[in-house]
Amino acid sequence: MTLISQRKRKMPSTTTIVVIVVVIVAVAGIGFSGIFPF
After folding, report:
1. 6, 14 Cβ separation under 8 angstroms
2. Is a pLDDT exceeding 70 seen at residue 16?
3. Helix-, strand-, coil-residue percentages of the chain, each rounded to 5
4. Taking the mean position of all CA atoms in its chain, how far away is CA 19?
5. Cα 10 → chain centroid
């Protein structure tokens, strides 16, 4: 747990951006499919 937290604190750019992008893509995909069902 400590190593993961230290890694995230040292390099927040890569891990945080990847997680945020994945969440945004998932939410956007669900939202677009719900709003605009093609």
Report:
1. no
2. yes
3. 85, 0, 15
4. 3
5. 18
